[in-house]
Design brief:
By secondary structure, the chain is an alpha/beta fold. It is about 30% helix and about 25% strand. Bound molecules: NADP nicotinamide-adenine-dinucleotide phosphate. The site of NADP nicotinamide-adenine-dinucleotide phosphate (NAP) has 24 residues, from α1, α3 and α4.
């Protein structure tokens, strides 16, 4: 099969098209003929050498795919050959064939193309876990997502809004802020021209925000403590501006804040299966009627994976970058 390999840690040019053996499904796994694969920021980190695949995972990059089931491993009872699926994987997505555990796969939402469906798993699993399970977002609460125009951000805005929150987003340009508003954000803050802490205090009559999803870190750690409400929660999913920071922790104590975080990739199949089953129950009905949907930025052919990574690292994209595997 054709696959994209990271020939050595480095820039986008180290992604090269190679021939690999087609994998064989083990117990509980389905072999998927990949039609499209989502590109995520963690793939760029892996390419640079900073985010190695967990033990047992493929070294081929790619955390989410959509395609047709071609073969079934022992004990597979949730899918049949020929079914159209999308799925979350710990690696191996940038290839013509990919193994997915049946419990980490979901049917294509109705009317979705493979490229749209490939843009769902990584951000929907991440947002569901960090915003709803870990962050405990409830109807009527205030919610802030930093990086609102990112793959994660565009998903978080739509889901938080669909579940009844008041949604704030930060983004780095007027166009990105406009996209956040079009997705349902009640207020988008261009952090390059406005102080997001002040803007959020103004928006909440000084109360602050009840839940913050942060991928930025750095000086945002201290500023999130400032922007959070009494008993507020802050969930950390990345540190694009650095994981080492100086912060005034007295706010954590005085406001009784909860600061937590998680990563998805290294978690067990069973843990991801639990998220998949909640998504199927609570989110698939919304996708099926397009009450929420992935925001599609650019589709690149598989062999242009390096161009897809360049697009992501240039930072002009809004929503998801996807590889068309053919
Ligand atoms: N913990 C987990 O389980 C998990 C799972 C998936 C993804 N993630 C993380 O979530 C983040 C978003 O992923 P994604 O795939 O949605 O990526 P993405 O689309 O490339 O989004 C990154 C966003 O961050 C903003 N940003 C702010 N400061 C930045 C900086 N210093 N460098 C680069 N971008 C910056 C960018 O927009 P502006 O122009 O507005 O700044 C951009 O919208 C990534 O850091 C990824 O590693 C974590």
């Amino acid at each position: 099969m054709k696959a994209i390999e990271i020939i050595k840690p480095g820039g986008p040019e180290v992604l090269q098209l190679v021939e690999r053996e087609t994998p064989e499904p083990g117990a509980g796994e389905i072999l998927v003929r990949v039609r499209a694969a989502g590109v995520n920021r963690p793939d760029c980190l892996q390419r640079q050498g900073g985010y190695p695949p967990p033990p047992g995972a493929s070294d081929i990059p790619g955390l989410e795919i959509a395609g047709e089931v071609m073969a079934l491993g022992k004990g597979v009872d949730q899918f049949r050959i020929g079914d159209s699926v999308c799925g979350l994987v710990a690696g191996g997505g940038y290839a013509e064939f990919c193994l997915v555990h049946q419990t980490n796969a979901l049917p294509l939402p109705s009317g979705f193309s493979f490229s749209e469906a490939a843009a769902i798993p990584e951000t929907y699993f991440t947002v569901w876990h960090n915003v709803f399970q870990r962050g405990g977002l409830k109807k009527g609460e205030t919610f802030l997502v930093h990086g609102g125009s990112s793959g994660i951000g565009t998903t978080a805005i739509q889901l938080a809004k669909a579940f009844g929150a008041t949604v704030f987003a930060t983004a780095g340009s007027a166009d990105k802020c406009k996209a956040c508003l079009e997705l349902g954000a009640d207020r988008a803050i261009n952090y390059k021209t406005e102080d997001f802490v002040k803007a959020l205090k103004d928006e909440t009559d000084g109360a602050g925000v009840e839940l913050i999803l942060d991928m930025v870190g750095g000086d945002y750690i201290d500023r999130n403590f400032d922007a959070a409400a009494i008993e507020g929660r802050i969930v950390q999913i990345a540190f694009l501006n650095g994981a080492v920071a100086q912060a005034n922790f007295s706010r954590l104590m005085l406001k009784r804040l909860t600061h937590t975080g998680s990563t998805l990739r290294a978690r067990t199949i069973e843990f991801k299966a639990d998220i998949a089953s909640e998504l199927r129950q609570h989110v698939w009905p919304l996708l099926n009627r397009r009450a929420v949907q992935p925001v599609m930025d650019t589709l690149f052919p598989l062999e242009k994976a390096s161009a897809a990574h360049s697009r992501m690292e240039e930072g002009q994209h809004i929503g998801k970058i996807v590889l068309d595997v053919g």
